[in-house]
Write a structure and sequence with these properties.
By secondary structure, chain A is mainly α. Chain A has seven helices and no strands. At the A-B interface, α1, α2, α3, α4 and α5 of A face α1, α2, α4 and α5 of B.
């Protein structure tokens, strides 16, 4: 394995959740989720040689993944073959606590999918613990604008979750 | 449910182990390489064909009794090749690494605009000139025949010759129209809706509220 491949594998091991959660939030079905993950992996692999040493790997993964997720063509009116949220992506969780957790993150994902793509990106970054400044840097907007958008998106998310 | 609790729920999502990533990257790279090779091959075939056709027309011009239609056909065909190269060179370059989402959207918009311009104008820079080439070939062939058979025989037979070519022209025209329609549909059904999505995203991103 080359240094290039080893570095990417190490970072993906540490931050794979980001990639999976972003794909899940932007895909329309399980096949689309798989395609989106593959597109993001390819974009990461291609841009790795020019990665700046002073940048944080997680920020870079967010930038690449959101760029791919937002700029790909979304088929208008495409109906999901089946809702990936109806399926488990891992062996069936046991116990009431695990079932409750699954219900909760599924509800959050469903609500996110009802939101505009940019609001979804802002909320994903917030849910992943990115600061307002990081969000502004990743999206290429001012920190003030990021704050306003986040406030509005959070309010909308709450409305959707309470509906 | 408060936001901290939502954050916690969000983080609970299962993520499969990263074991197969390298295999998937290699698979995606392989697919990308195949696609790139196909596109490059198509470009070379297009260019090679225009250069080859131009050479053939020049060669015919050296043998034909009437030279100008063949020389014109060679020049127009070369012009099509040059327009093709120019469009290829104008293709926007890849976005800078670590570009922001805004830069990524801007880049994607530039790429779409380039594709829309290229496919949307294919009738003018590709099909119409090739149609003119077809007309020039007919003219070259007819004028050559006229020179071969002499004005007296030509005066009795030209209607038949012109009639044959008059049948060929609509067939060529229909084939070109079909190609133009395919491109036009790709622009209207695929590229413009995607462009509208990107413009809406950009507007949404830039909105200061």
């Amino acid at each position: 394995m080359s240094d290039h491949d080893a570095t990417l594998t190490r970072w993906l091991t540490e931050h794979r959740g980001i990639l999976v959660r972003i794909s899940r939030a932007y895909a329309v079905d399980a096949a689309d989720e798989e395609d989106l993950q593959q597109d993001i992996l390819l974009a990461l692999w291609r841009s790795l040689p020019s990665f700046r040493a002073d940048a944080k790997p997680s920020t870079w993964i967010f930038q690449v993944a959101l760029n791919v997720a937002l700029t790909r063509r979304r088929a208008a009116g495409r109906r999901p073959a089946h809702d990936p949220l109806d399926e488990s992506h891992e062996p069936a969780a046991d116990g009431e606590g695990a079932a409750m957790q699954r219900m909760e993150w599924t509800a959050v994902l469903r609500a996110l999918r009802h939101m505009a793509p940019i609001d979804r990106a802002i909320l994903i970054l917030a849910l992943e613990g990115a600061s307002q400044q990081d969000t502004a840097e990743i999206l290429g907007i001012t920190t003030g604008n990021a704050g306003v958008k986040l406030h509005r998106a959070r309010r909308r998310l709450m409305e959707l979750l309470e509906a | 449910m408060d936001f901290a609790h939502i954050q916690q729920s969000w983080a609970q999502q299962p993520a499969p182990a990263p074991g197969g990533d390298q295999a998937r990257i290699q698979q995606a790279l392989k697919q990308a390489r195949v696609l790139n090779r196909r596109v490059a091959m198509r470009d070379y075939v297009e260019l090679g064909t225009t250069v080859g056709m131009s050479g053939a027309f020049v060669w015919i011009a050296t043998l034909a009794p009437v030279v100008w239609p063949w020389v014109m056909a060679a020049l127009v065909t070369l012009g099509v090749g040059a327009a093709f190269v120019r469009e290829r060179l104008r293709k926007p370059s890849a976005p800078p690494v670590g570009s922001t989402v805004r830069q990524g959207l801007q880049q994607a918009l530039e790429e779409i605009d380039h594709q829309v311009r290229m496919l949307g104008s294919v009738g003018w820079w590709y099909l119409a000139p090739l149609f003119v080439v077809a007309l020039l070939l007919c003219a070259g062939a007819l004028l050559g025949m006229k020179a071969e058979i002499g004005p007296e025989v030509w005066a009795r037979t030209w209607v038949g010759f012109v009639g044959v070519f008059a049948l060929v022209i609509p067939v060529v025209g229909a084939a070109f129209w079909f190609v133009w329609r395919l491109n036009d549909r790709a622009v209207k059904n695929t590229l413009l809706p995607h462009r509208a999505q990107l413009v809406a995203l950009m507007k949404n991103l830039e909105e200061e509220m």
